[in-house]
Design brief:
Length: about 230
């Protein structure tokens, strides 16, 4: 079974109604997003940061996976599919994808502020001041903030290096280090890029599908029929 690796970004979830930082114009309630999504913001005003992520979690609870998410999950019938996503939502998993690597953390998880290995699943949208880990420390969103390292990058590189087919969906390829992942694909590996804005990928085997995620994945599935 061929290994198909999907790199997904914000455009993947946009059709499910999830707002991106770009949709917000870089602002949330007149706060620059960097004021609510950085370690400095957390130290300055943790209550504000928690409220920002509570609002995003509440939005996620109201959202459903779209046809693009379901289409990627259905490809597991024919391929060994691995999703590497920049998205912090759980829509890939809810659509049925079984191998999902989140580069920038997960909205439906919280972690200890004294022990990064203490990570907890959330089954509700609220994470508030006074919610503590088992060591008595305040819980924070399990998110990679601006200015923090991306610990899953080495694992993502290994996944991409093993790809027989690479699919890039809904990402401008402008956010590093995630954008660098396309450079690790083996030579002669087919690369499909789904995005109406056509981000440039410097690869001789690239095919562009200049559509949004849902329609783009439908077209992709037709093209992949020949590569099964």
């Amino acid at each position: 079974m061929k290994k198909l690796v999907v790199l997904s970004g914000a455009g993947m979830s946009q059709e499910s109604g999830l707002k991106t930082f770009r949709d917000m114009g870089g602002l949330w309630e007149n706060y620059d997003v960097t004021e609510v999504a950085t370690p400095e913001a957390w130290h300055k005003d943790p209550s504000l940061v928690l409220r920002f992520y509570n609002e995003r979690r509440k939005q996620l609870f109201a959202a459903e996976p779209n046809g693009g998410h379901f289409g990627i999950a259905e490809l597991e019938k024919w391929f060994d599919v691995h999703v590497v996503t920049q998205n912090v939502d759980n829509l890939h998993e809810r659509a049925g994808s079984t191998k999902v690597l989140h580069l920038h953390g997960e909205l439906m998880k919280a972690r200890s502020t004294v022990d990064p290995f203490l990570v907890y699943e959330l089954d509700h949208w609220a994470l508030d001041p006074g919610d503590l880990c088992e060591k008595g420390s305040q819980l924070r969103p399990h998110i990679v903030w601006f200015g923090e390292g991306v610990p899953e990058i080495p694992r993502a590189i290994k996944v991409v290096q093993q790809a027989d087919i690479l699919v890039v969906i809904g990402t401008s390829l402008a956010v590093y280090p995630a954008a660098s992942l396309v450079n690790y694909v083996k030579r002669n590996t087919p690369v499909f890029v789904i995005d109406p804005n056509r981000p440039e990928v410097y690869n001789e085997n690239v095919s562009y599908i200049e559509k949004k995620a849902e329609l783009g994945v439908r077209i992709l599935k037709e093209k992949l029929e020949k590569l099964k």
